[in-house]
Amino acid sequence: MTGFHGLHVTIGVLAIVAVLWRSRVPGHYSNEKHFGIEAAEIYWHFVDVIWIILFGLLYLL
C-alpha cells in the first residue's frame, strides 16, 4: 500500500513538473490547447477518489 501510494504521488508530481516545464514556452498552453494541465488535474482527482474509497474499505470497515 505504501509503495503504491508513493508511486502515484511520484507520478502526480512528475506530471505537475512536466506542466511547469512546458509552460516556460510562451504560447504552449492556451484556452484551446491545455491538455497537459487538464490531464494532471484529472489524474489528481482520480487519486483523490480512489483514496476515499480505499480509506473507507481499509480503515472504516
Explained architecture:
The structure is a single chain. The protein has helices at 2-22, 35-60. The longest helix has 26 residues, at 35-60. The chain has one domain (2-60). Helix 1 runs antiparallel to helix 2 (35-60). The protein contains 2 helices and no strands. By secondary structure, the chain is mainly α. The chain is elongated. It is found in: Cell membrane. This is Heme-copper oxidase subunit III family profile domain-containing protein. InterPro entries: Cyt_c/ubiquinol_Oxase_su3, Cyt_c_oxidase-like_su3, Cyt_c_oxidase_su3-like_sf, Cyt_c_oxidase_su3_a-hlx. It comes from Nostoc cf. commune SO-36. Residues 1-61 form the Heme-copper oxidase subunit III family profile domain.
Return Rg in Å: 15 Å
Structural class: mainly alpha
Global geometry = elongated
Number of separate structural domains: 1
Name the beta content range: under 5%
Helix content: over 70%
The SSE order reads HH
Give me the count of strands: 0
Number of DSSP helical runs:
2
CA distance, first residue to last residue: 17 Å
Low-confidence stretches: none
**How does the major sheet shape up?**
none
Overall pLDDT metric = 92
Protein name: Heme-copper oxidase subunit III family profile domain-containing protein
Keywords: Cell membrane, Membrane, Transmembrane, Transmembrane helix
Subcellular location: Cell membrane
Transmembrane segments: 6-21, 42-60
